[in-house]
Specification:
The complex is a heterodimer of chains A (652) and B (174). By secondary structure, chain A is mostly beta strands. Chain A folds into five domains: 1-53, no CATH class; 63-78 and 289-338, no CATH class; 85-284, Exo-inulinase, domain 1 (Jelly Rolls); 346-423, Ubiquitin-activating enzyme E1, FCCH domain (Elongation Factor Tu (Ef-tu), domain 3), CATH 2.40.30.180; 446-478 and 499-625, no CATH class. Chain A contains no helices and 49 strands. In chain A, strands 8, 11, 13, 14, 15, 16, 17 and 21 form an eight-stranded antiparallel beta sheet that branches. In chain A, strands 7-22-12-18-19-20 form a six-stranded antiparallel beta sheet, with no helix packed on it. Chain B contains one helix and 16 strands. Chain B has one helix at residues 112-117, and strands at residues 3-10, 15-22, 29-33, 42-46, 52-56, 61-62, 65-66, 70-72, 76-77, 84-95, 102-109, 122-126, 130-131, 139-141, 143-150, 160-170. In chain B, strands 8, 9, 11, 12 and 15 form a five-stranded antiparallel beta sheet that branches. In chain B, strands 10, 13, 14 and 16 form a four-stranded antiparallel beta sheet that branches. In chain B, β3 (29-33) and β4 (42-46) form a beta hairpin. The chains are: A mainly beta (652), B mainly beta (174). Chains A and B meet through β1, β2, β3, β4 and β5 of A and β1, β2, β3, β4 and β5 of B.
């Protein structure tokens, strides 16, 4: 009888491989897996396990539940007292069961009510016998509103008990049951049901304010918040206001927290992984001047995280973004420039401008301008081929009536023209928290409209990919996003605006589908079936060379940059990597392992998105189906229902 | 609502790992958010339902939706060659501390192709941490695979899985 032997069943760290016969399956690979990672999520070791879960990064529902169409960021530097902010957080990112320096056990908390719990320290669950803790004094000002937040995490798909925030405790003798407030939320089970109360203590006497109970529908992670605004306290959970109460004054500002499972420990655990405070520094000034804002769009509305961790609609502005497709943006000089576009509302070749230069009509063709959905706050009129006194250009709209469109500025005088009315690109100014139409400075040309693609390169704004001329690119003046004058007085001006139509580099020889800038060194034009690279400055000896005549990029965000300067992108035949510096040919990554997957994806039916993930050390390749009819067009690749035969703004 | 199929490319291991998301989670927009606030610094995904989400290692579910996770471990030849059958006597698993339950299936067949599509010969759940009680399939075949999946609504991991085998004769047609 043959001897027994030991065999290993290793986790397939090499992932999915469907390239060869079953009998020749490469070692450490598999034919089937789903939602797993080689590096598991418990200790981060390469031994295999379930992937990380998705959780709301912000509790707010944007666009009344409409799809997200833009995610972008912009950094602003505060210059006034109101522009500074205070921010402190603790993610308990250390080993051991000690909360670490700055934390003290709340010895005033009744011993009988002390209970063991676990918090997440250094990524692992760590047991603590003392569940109530107080933080050393933080340097935020009580003269301004401040926000204390604890992120509560379910365990095993459920919540298990009470979560507490202490605040306004005496600075020298922090005992919340003597002077201060205690906000307590109770979360148990998997239904998302919550209840709780706010208790204000003055001289040891409590005053209770009950929370409005409710349910979020399921046990999900979220932020338990206490907003202190003078003597008004607002408590909220996952964006639901629990209570708003005007309470007695307190002089202190010490904070703390407590977790307590209800009769289930250790089967059930109360988990929290972050506590943070934000407000204004003492005196209104501080050292944290730089702030990076997240800017998002959904349902045409535009949002920013003006308060850290909260997305709020940018109110008081009429500007909106398209909700029909992915919208790209790029930051430049502390502003976010947004390539907002949609197919034109209307195109005409024999429009008429009156003697004032303000009124556009189209006799015999347009009887009711209001029927085209023209939006004065979001659209512009692009005039070309002007005859008579008409001056070509891009004009904002003052008003729309059935009989005419009234321009916000005169287009010269009486005459005829070709015109196109379409959505204008936008600019978000975080310093003012405003969104407006991105318009060129007077006499400095016109910001190109209809462009799907945008990036920053060599201190210029680059736009590309309009439906009517998908090979062309446009670059603003270096350092000035509002100067698009391609023919300045000094033609040798190296900083001048330039486009593919009037530069030495010229147009790209294929339909541009993606713009990929790398520092000031080079700009890659991803095209339908080829790759091109611009090296150097487009107005000063820059060159445009082909990297590949075979490999292109599927969509506007079907690429991402890796940590070493390399680029990953999805072509019609799979995933590729472009080495740092774009010095070599694109290297195929998926074709040898996945001969069928990731092939010939149609961006008209799928939103094909790539993004680098710092935490998981890899590239996410998202292929989300798009609802039928939801997309306007993607250059050359998808349906192009309203592609215009009309020319784009001609360089001046 | 059907899930969406995606892929993750692990740069460290040059490996492709298929994922699925609830259709509501999309995503339809993504951003590697590089902010000075470290706890906010991560990749963000914009969903079809108006929410912005991110991945968190601690989280067992996709924002309340159970994650269906499984893996077919690489097939093994029970007799060590492609001519003989083997008998899988025992399976011994070691589950890391902190892991949720793991469902397992043992499959045996005459070839690697058959075993990839075979139904379970034996199944069960490892519901503790550390070394698990030995499973004794006593399953005969030329090829064997073990399929692991999440046995409850919690994240899981596997430290080690070994088997005890013995050759038993030529592979038979039926």
């Amino acid at each position: 009888m043959a001897k027994k032997s030991i065999i290993q069943f290793p986790f397939p760290l090499g992932g999915l491989d469907r390239s060869v016969s079953y009998r020749a399956q490469p070692p450490y690979t598999t034919t089937d897996m789903l939602n797993v990672r080689a590096y598991e999520t418990i200790e981060g070791r390469a031994r295999g396990g379930q992937r990380p879960g998705l959780v709301k990064a912000f509790a707010e529902e944007l666009g009344d539940g409409s799809p997200l169409r833009m995610l972008a960021q912009v950094t602003s530097v505060g210059t006034t007292a109101g522009g500074y902010y205070y921010y402190w957080s603790d993610e308990f990112n250390r080993d051991g069961s000690d909360l670490g320096p700055g934390w003290n056990d709340a010895t005033w908390w009744p011993t009988l009510l002390q209970s063991p719990t676990k918090i997440v320290i250094g990524g692992a669950l760590v047991e603590r016998q003392t569940s109530a803790s107080v933080r050393d004094q933080l340097e935020f000002s009580t003269a301004y509103p401040y926000l204390i937040e604890v992120r509560i995490v379910p365990y095993g798909g459920q919540h298990w008990g009470d979560y507490w925030i202490f605040a306004r405790m005496d600075d020298d003798d922090p005992e919340a049951t003597d002077e201060g407030i205690i906000a307590q939320i109770t979360l148990t089970g998997d239904t998302g049901a919550y209840s709780g109360r706010l208790t204000s203590f003055s001289g040891g006497l409590p005053t209770l304010y009950a929370f409005t109970p409710g349910s979020t529908g399921s046990a999900t992670a979220g932020w338990f918040k206490v907003l202190v605004n003078a003597d008004n306290i607002q408590c909220s959970w996952q964006d639901q206001l629990l209570v708003s109460a005007d309470i007695a004054a307190h002089s202190g500002k010490r904070i703390g927290f407590r977790l307590s499972t209800i009769g289930t420990y250790p089967t059930g655990l109360c988990l929290a992984d972050v506590i943070r405070v934000q407000g204004t520094p003492v005196g209104g000034l501080g050292t944290q001047r730089r702030r990076t804002y997240l800017v998002a769009s959904a349902g045409t509305k535009i949002y920013a995280d003006r308060t850290i961790g909260e997305m709020s609609e940018i109110s008081g502005v009429a500007a909106r973004l398209s909700d029909k497709h992915l919208v790209l943006a790029a930051e430049h000089h502390q502003k976010l420039y947004i390539a907002d576009w949609d197919p034109p509302r209307i195109i005409g070749t024999s429009g008429t401008i009156d003697a004032t230069g303000l009124q556009l009509t189209h006799p015999g063709e347009v009887t009711d301008w209001t029927s085209y959905g023209i939006d004065a706050d979001n659209d512009v009129v692009v005039i070309s081929d002007g005859l008579g006194l008409v001056v070509d250009g891009t004009y904002q709209i003052d008003s729309v009536a059935a009989s005419m469109v009234t321009l916000a500025a005169s287009a010269g005088g009486a005459g005829t023209c070709t015109y196109r009315i379409e959505r204008a690109p936008k600019v978000y100014d975080p310093a003012e928290n405003t969104v407006s139409i991105w318009a060129a400075t007077a006499t400095q040309g016109q910001v190109p409209t209809g462009c799907h693609l945008i990036c920053t390169y060599r201190d210029r704004m680059i736009l590309a990919g309009p439906d009517d001329d998908p090979h062309i690119w446009f670059a603003s003046r270096s350092g000035d996003a509002y100067d698009w004058d391609y023919l300045p007085e000094d033609p040798t001006d190296a900083g001048r605006a330039v486009s593919g139509a009037n530069s030495d580099a010229g147009k790209v020889g294929d339909v541009i589908t993606a713009l990929i800038p790398f520092s000031d060194d080079f700009l890659v034009f991803g095209c339908k079936g080829s790759l091109w690279v611009m090296r150097g400055d487009p107005a000063w000896g820059g060159t445009l060379d082909a990297l590949s005549y075979d490999v292109g990029i599927v969509g506007a965000k079907s690429w991402c940059q890796g940590p070493s300067g390399e680029f990953y992108f999805l072509s019609a035949d799979g995933l590729y990597r472009l080495p740092p510096g774009a010095t070599g040919r694109p290297e195929p990554l998926s074709t040898e392992k996945l001969p069928h997957e990731l092939m010939r994806l149609n961006p008209a039916t799928h939103e094909v998105l790539l993004e680098w993930d710092d935490q998981q050390k890899g590239v996410h390749i998202y292929l989300a189906p798009i609802a039928a009819g939801a997309v306007g067009s993607y250059v050359g690749l998808g349906s192009s229902p309203e592609a215009s035969p009309s020319p784009s703004p001609e360089p001046q | 609502m059907a899930d969406n199929s995606h892929f993750f490319y692990d740069v460290r291991l040059d490996s492709f790992l298929p994922d699925s998301h609830n259709d509501l989670h999309g995503p339809l927009a993504v951003l590697n958010f590089q902010t000075e606030i470290m706890e906010q610094r991560r990749m963000l995904v914009g969903g079809k339902d108006g929410y912005i989400r991110g991945y968190e290692a601690l989280h067992d579910t996709d924002d309340g939706y159970a994650i269906t996770s499984y893996v077919l471990l690489p097939p093994v030849r029970l007799a060590g060659d492609e001519y003989h059958d083997g008998l899988l006597y025992e399976l011994i698993a070691t589950v890391p501390e902190g892991s949720g339950d793991i469902d397992y299936e043992v499959r045996v067949a005459r070839s690697h192709e058959e075993v990839a599509k075979a139904s379970a010969f034996l199944s069960g759940t490892w519901d503790g941490e550390g070394l698990q009680t030995t499973v004794r399939p006593r399953a005969r075949g030329a090829s064997a695979v073990v399929r692991l999946s999440n046995g409850e609504g919690r994240r899981w991991a596997i430290e080690q899985l070994v088997g005890v085998v013995r050759p038993v004769g030529k592979t038979r047609v039926a």
